[in-house]
Amino acid sequence: MRLEGIASPGDVYVSGGVYEQIKNKLVCAYQSLGDRQVKNITDPVSVYRVLPDPAALSQAKRKRWPVALIAVFIVIDIAILGGLYFFLQNQLANKAPTLAGTPGSPAVSANTPEPLPATVPVPVEKPNGSSSVSAPAQAPKESTKESTSSAPATAPISALESTKESTSPTPVTAPISAQLQLIHEMVSIPGGTFAMGSDDDPSEKPIHQVTIKSFAISKFPITIREWNACVAAKSCSYTPTGEDDAPVGNLSWTDTQQFVEWLSNVTQKPFRLPTEAEWEYAAHGGSRSKFWWGDQLQAAMANCKGCNEPYQTSQPLKVGSFKPNPFGLYDMGGNIHQWVADCWHKNYQGAPPDGSAWIENDCLSRVIRSGSWKNDPSYVRPSNRDHYDATVGYPTHGLRVAYSL
Asked: Residue 212 in 3-state DSSP?
């Protein structure tokens, strides 16, 4: 999300997703600014202003002094009332023995044992002279057996394997057959050197030479059918809905790592997300024009808001609905955003020249490419780049896969 455009000089703004991750980890104050409209995101995004310095933190606390003062008075009142209550209890306890001699009142003896509360376990003798156990301790074991026998069909494989009633093996033929089909849809991209970036946006500067090694990339964005093969294998936690041939969406960058790890294990190939440089190189298809087909927008070349008519506003079209680029790749611009491996950097200063992923430890934001059906034509450009919180899914976010040759 590009919050720079709405932030004042010297201020630090974070999205709601980032706020949820850091609010209890950093000694900062946060001011909610409500929902704001930002570039590349159709729906408004919750925004918070960070107040990191002690002066700002103190100022934020001073605004809450009436509430704090009221809380102090309440605590004092509770302490006084509590002390008075215990004082009266002690007085009544000291007078309790005199009640035994009162006519018409039951006799109270200091030696009379009090009855056991209903919640105290009563010892039960076990046969064969074994040590005693408390009766209530048996109840949790019975409830555990009941919950085990009624384990839902969607439970993880590890849980099902521990259930005696579950003896059927998990089918694997569907995921493997789906992945064999996916392997056939990989396209080999020859290596080369190209000028990465553009002057159309500050984040795309400076234009710099990058040398790419040959690699393979999926012909289409990953579809719901292909993703559901990972779900069936209990390796992907998110279950999408929609047509099988539609690109899978609503994925976080973290979700994509589950898919590539599973796919690598099934196929014994080192699948991964493409790097940002590899994606842009493949999207250009060997051209250096604004779009892969030329410098002017043309109808029926991509799925975006303003690229063609009729326009579907609620969901992406099935993969392969438009022409492929010169490398034979479909939807390299529009229809669905695609996560790549790199951490987000606001420009290309210091970017690696060898096409490798630009990664730093624990980066919170990752790069997304391609634009989606909800974006305008400027996002369809191969050089366009944006980013999003790595742990947050969004309906327009999908993926492609790649591996080195």
From this structure: strand
